[in-house]
Automatic annotation (TrEMBL):
Keywords: Membrane, Transmembrane, Transmembrane helix
InterPro entries: DUF4153
One matching Pfam family: DUF4153
Protein name: DUF4153 domain-containing protein
Highest taxon of the lineage: Bacteria
Regions crossing the membrane: 21-42, 54-74, 81-102, 122-143, 170-192, 204-222, 234-260, 272-291, 303-328, 340-359, 366-389
Organism: Oxalicibacterium solurbis
């Protein structure tokens, strides 16, 4: 009974009043209106969308901070709530401004709005991890307010964090069901030829506003009945706790098998660190589902108490192996942004592992050390997130410095250096490093470094097929294009024509070191030889080039698909092919000719497909 009373006192109950409810509804409505105004600004390239250092922080702030305000109403005093909102707004704005700065002029950046004229490079990872960070911080603030302490008791943190987690999940579920019902309603009205609801649902002003308002309503409703939320949480944690024996058995079997199979198979996977981190995170989650607020220890089934202690002991070897795996990759290939993030994650995992090991070896109490470990690690996570998304610990900056040091020290040859990584993963720092490399004059590899750096800087996206190859000229085309039959040659006008600004043509016409096969045939029967060109990178597609009789320029006039079989290639090279009348005539409608594409026949399948 005492534990139950302590649990009730630690629970941040809502102060339910009409004023709180009205403020929450108004806040959700205003959030939706402001977000739509920002969307409209981006759509029409108006103010503030024309100023990225203002626009992106505003979007970030109004996506995240109103939810904190709505959740804090009724739980935090006016002064505490105002201070928390100011701090949250400042963090959002500063980190968003840094994100714009680091992503500016980087082709690989995401468009925040999906509208190119007003879209800015924006890391959705920032938004995701800001949401995670604010979830942790908001739970700490709510628990401190409920417990009336700067550092609250662990049961208060437990109650606040799990209640907030369930509130968010059910609010998202509420929004999903709401939109499902709205689209179902539009489908019903469409049955009687009424499309007003369908058009309404596609209007941004409606969808953005309704979604924000619905989220505010859901947060309020789930806050009004904390007992229901507590019941759902209890059921969820009980079910999760019975998964702990399964996870412990699997992880324990893995650790025990390592002395017999060795670590080499683990390193060969190239993703050992991420898998080990994932397994560690699952164990930590399930251990906490069993531990809960820490007050139920004597009432937990004995087998779960034993398994939880064993699981705590397994965390440290898993983290040590992951650290060793990451260190091997860093020694071989240097730091990358992913490896910096993995190192930060391992630091957090090490905090859990060491604290849980200490809790497991204490015999007088059942895992009492988990509580202070979770509280301390929560602050470590918050500090780590701020560092990673600020200039101090920016993974892009650290990885660029590491890769440049490897190049300068000779640990990696200039020819093997990944210049594209600097361009598309190094953000602003990588671009500045390439500008430095473009001016390199010292060393035997200086010409190659300058060429590769300039090529990477000129790329518009990471999928640019150039891959560092210089543009093609007449000599390279003569070398890279094999003509069939062998005694034929490509027309000089075709080789001389510039294709560098042309899209959707075989790569061998634009870049060097890209091989093609060319077959000469009068395909359209106009008395002039046409060129059938097949790029090795798109093996089943043959582009047909014809020459204009007036200006002599060549253009891609048609495409043949399906010539992918080995015997087809051999027949084309030997000249064993002919033009035949089409099995289906064209269909002319209103003066326009339509080609009939027959269904694929069995005789179009390759012999190797049946092997």
């Amino acid at each position: 009974m005492t534990a139950d009373r302590d649990e009730e006192s630690a629970m941040p109950e809502s102060i339910v009043s009409g004023r709180v409810a009205r403020l929450r509804m108004i806040s959700g409505l205003l959030q939706g209106i402001i977000l739509y105004a920002l969307y409209w600004s981006a759509r029409h390239t108006g103010w503030p969308a024309a100023h990225p250092y203002l626009f992106v922080p505003l979007v970030t702030v109004f996506l995240l901070v109103p939810a904190l305000f709505i959740s804090g109403l009724g739980h935090l005093g006016n002064r505490r709530l105002a201070i928390w909102m100011i701090v949250a707004t400042a963090i959002c704005a500063l980190l968003a401004m840094h994100d714009v700065w680091r992503n500016m002029d980087i082709p690989s950046g995401w468009s925040l709005t999906g509208i190119k004229p007003a879209g800015y490079p924006f890391s959705w990872w920032l938004l995701l991890f800001l949401a995670i960070g604010f979830y942790i911080a908001h739970a700490l603030v709510l628990a401190g307010a409920a417990d009336r302490r700067r550092i609250a008791r662990y049961p208060a943190y437990f109650e606040a964090s799990w209640k907030l987690c369930i509130q968010i999940k059910f609010s998202l579920l509420f929004i999903g069901v709401l939109w499902l019902i709205l689209w179902l309603g539009s489908a019903l009205f469409m049955l009687v030829k009424l499309d007003f609801l369908r058009h309404l649902l596609t209007r941004p002003w409606f969808s953005v506003t309704v979604t924000a308002f619905a989220f505010a309503v859901a947060l309020h409703v789930t806050d009004v009945r904390p007992g229901i939320v507590r019941g759902i949480r209890g059921l969820l944690l009980v079910l999760m706790s019975w998964l702990l024996p399964v996870a412990t058995l699997i992880v324990g079997g893995f650790v025990v098998s390592l002395p017999f199979v060795g670590l080499e198979p683990l390193w060969a996977t190239r993703h050992a660190t991420s898998v080990l981190l994932g397994a560690t995170a699952v164990l930590i989650l399930l251990i906490n589902a069993t531990f809960q607020g820490g007050e139920l220890g004597p009432r937990i089934v004995r087998v779960l108490r034993i398994v939880a202690r064993i699981a705590c002991l397994l965390l440290l070897p898993m983290v040590v192996i992951a650290v060793y795996s990451l260190s091997l990759r860093v020694q071989q290939y240097g730091w990358t942004a992913d490896r910096v993030i993995a190192a930060a994650s391992l630091l957090v995992a090490a905090c859990y592992a060491c604290g849980y090991l200490w809790a497991a070896v204490q015999r007088d109490t059942w895992l009492a050390g988990i509580a202070p470990t979770n509280i301390a690690t929560a602050f470590v996570i918050l500090a780590m997130l701020i560092v990673l998304f600020s200039p101090f610990g920016d993974p892009a900056r650290l990885s660029v410095s590491s890769q440049m040091a490897r190049l300068e020290s000779g640990k990696i040859a200039a020819a093997a250096f990944d210049y594209n990584y600097l361009r598309f993963e190094g953000k602003r720092y990588g671009k500045e490093a390439l500008e430095v490399l473009k001016k390199t004059t010292a060393g035997i590899d200086a010409p190659a470094i300058r060429t590769q750096a300039e090529t990477a800087l000129n790329k518009k996206n990471r999928w640019d097929p150039n891959d560092g190859n210089p543009v093609a000229d007449v000599t390279s085309r003569m070398k890279d294009i094999t003509v069939w039959p062998k005694n034929e040659t490509l027309p000089e006008s075709f080789l001389q024509q510039q294709w560098n600004g042309t899209t959707n043509v075989p790569d061998c016409l634009r870049f060097r070191n890209r091989h093609c096969n060319a077959y000469l045939k009068d395909v359209n029967r106009d008395g002039h030889t046409d060129i059938l060109l097949r790029n090795d990178n798109r093996y089943s597609e043959i582009a047909i080039f014809t020459q204009d009789t007036t200006d002599g320029r060549w253009s891609k006039s048609a495409v043949i698909f399906g010539a992918r079989c080995k015997d087809m290639t051999e027949a084309l090279q030997s000249g064993d092919y002919r033009l035949v009348e089409p099995a289906w005539q064209d269909l002319e409608i209103d003066g326009r000719r339509l080609h009939i594409q027959p269904s694929e026949k069995d005789n179009l399948r390759c012999a190797e497909d049946h092997r």
